[in-house]
Amino acid sequence: MRDKRFFYDEFADTFDETMNRYDLAKRMRVIFKELLPEDLQGKRLLDAGCGTGWFSREAARRGATVVSLDLGPRLLKHVQEKCNSANVAGDVLALPFKDDVFDVVISTEVIEHTVDPKGAIRSISRVLKTGGLFILTTPNRAWYFSVLLANALGLRRYAGYENWVGRRRLKEWLAECGCAIEAMKGFHLFPFIFSFTYPVLDYCDRFGAALGPSMLNVAVRARKKKGLAPAC
């Protein structure tokens, strides 16, 4: 039986050619210009669920000491082609690192592809140092009906886990894990990401803080304030 966790690894060799480059550029801009604009020189950074390594590459370019983690060994081979990072095959639900070791963790469009998104947040929070930054993007559960509809119409080929999280619950989970939200916004007003919709999407992104609850994706910058609570 196919292990749904490894869906992306199955087409790792063509992943970069088939991915939506507009969405990639949008997430790069949101993460590195809006949520994480500070100097990363000398910071130890984990790219949790790194895919083929685009975010690892940018973090390394900005001076961070990067650890790139993904379940898929084939994906990690492509990370090696992009940047000089330490590649680790592992699960975000059981990160193979000691407590309090990273200054920054980036996890973009990852936790929803696990069986336990809350467990992923707890695991990531555990390896963050006190004062460390958790940079997260994930789909907004308010739009989950759109993937159900697309699946029913045969418009998608995705066959992995899809456990989308609502904004309220995301806030609760981060708080329980000792992470204080410093910024939260939305991006992509709707899921129709085609070239003719780019101007509308880009314009509406300017109002991501106000329109966030109705937008397709959630982006969060949170800082770890304390150790994990037992109930987290």
Question: Could you explain how this protein is built, in words?
Answer:
The chain has 232 residues and is α/β, with parallel strands linked by helices. The protein has a single domain, classed as Vaccinia Virus protein VP39 (Rossmann fold). It is 34% helix and 22% strand. A seven-stranded mixed beta sheet has the order 3-2-1-4-5-7-6, sandwiched between helices. Helix 4 links the parallel strand 2 and strand 3. The longest helix is centred in the first third of the chain and has 15 residues. The protein is globular. The mean pLDDT is 94.
Task: Give the gist of this structure.
The chain is an alpha/beta fold and 232 residues long.
Which parts are unreliable, with pLDDT below 50 for 5 consecutive residues or more? none
Q: How is the CATH topology named?
A: Rossmann fold
**Biggest β-sheet strands, sense, barrel:** 7 strands, mixed
**Strand residue percentage:** 15-25%
Q: What is the H/E order?
A: HHEHEHEEHEHHEHHE
CATH class: Alpha Beta
CATH architecture classification name = 3-Layer(aba) Sandwich
Sum up the overall morphology in one term.
globular
- Strand tally: 7
Nearest-angstrom radius of gyration?
17 Å
For the record, give the distance between the C-alpha atoms at the N and C termini, rounded to a whole number.
32 Å
Tally the structural domains: 1
Mean model confidence by pLDDT: 94
Classified in CATH, the superfamily is Vaccinia Virus protein VP39
Strand order of the largest sheet: 3-2-1-4-5-7-6
- Helix fraction, binned, reads 25-40%
Summing up helix and strand content along with how strands pair, one would put the structural category as alpha/beta
Number of helices: 9
